[in-house]
Amino acid sequence: MAQESLSKDAGKQTETLAQLRCVAGKNDNIHEQLILIATINIFLCSIAFLGNTLILVALRKESSLHPPSKLLYRCLATTDLCIALISEPSSVAYWLSFVSRDWKLCKFGLSAYFIASHTICSVSILTMTAISVDRLLALVLGLRYRQIVTLKRTYVVIAIFWILSVAAGAAYFVDYRISVSYGYTLIPLCLITATFSYTKIFHRLHRSRNQVQILISQQPSQPVSLNMALYRNAVYSALWVQVAFVCCSLPYSIVAVVVPYDRLSPYDFILLSCAESMFYLNSSLNPLLYCWKINEVRRAVKETLRQTFRCISV
Question: What is the pLDDT of residues 97-146, one digit of tens each?
């Protein structure tokens, strides 16, 4: 009896979210804005799909990056690809359901978008935080870094990220507020951890610029200055990805806090949709950042493109 009551309550909570969001978009005056937002996201979705697919192929061929670090970037590119394949198309279907006045499509699109976004974005945030901690460990551990940060342990960490994130997304079927609360807890913790890691890195580099030696793809004959340069490039590459994420997610975070969740007006609905689009933009920007800031990835991408065009021209 108690179990049946809990199931009914969970169903009511899920239905309440659908009513709050789907009813808010039932306004003919915002159909043009929704079509524009959907069109922009279809374009961004295509860019994110092509860009992250290319990055994954390039990373698979690239062998000079430290395997655990490469695995973290592959996981991040995979989450961006999943956003392009699942989260963003679900949002587009959700927005267009108001234009077509399809209530079932609205509820389905909302559910798919909510679950996929909370799951995939959680993995993405955790992975970016792991990258910042990985860069700190490379500095602190020195010669022991490659012995402690192994590929097997990195796989375990990523598996934990996915299990935790899937559980957070699946909580939607129990009570969507559990997933929302998880996000409100996770994002500050990850940002604090990443901020601490990068602050510690730059503080230590500033204090011991000429003394610290880092073992990152170092050959015995290479000078220390070259090794330090490689480390700095790796840190700045990871930092750019982190900054891009913060810039793209900050508007959504502000709107989600400011906008009344239980009284969503048509204007609030458009504002929230624009903030979600800004959040999705990050998946399209990351491949460009990888090519711009990571020399090994840029070379691998160029080689992949050459081989692709060669095959097409034959």
Answer: 888 877 778 888 888 888 998 899 999 999 999 999 999 998 888 788 88
CB-count burial class (<10 Å; 0-12, 13-18, 19+) for 59: buried
Name the one residue in this structure whose structure tokens are 């915002």. 30
Neighbours of 21 (CB within 10 A): 20
| Distance in angstroms (rounded) separating the CA atoms of residues 117 and 185 | 16
* C-alpha closest to that of 176 among 90, 104, 117, 89: 117
The answer to whether residues 52 and 287 touch, using CB atoms and an 8 Å cutoff, is yes
Structure-block tokens of residue 228: 């330090």
pLDDT band for 283, please (50, 70, 90 cuts): very high
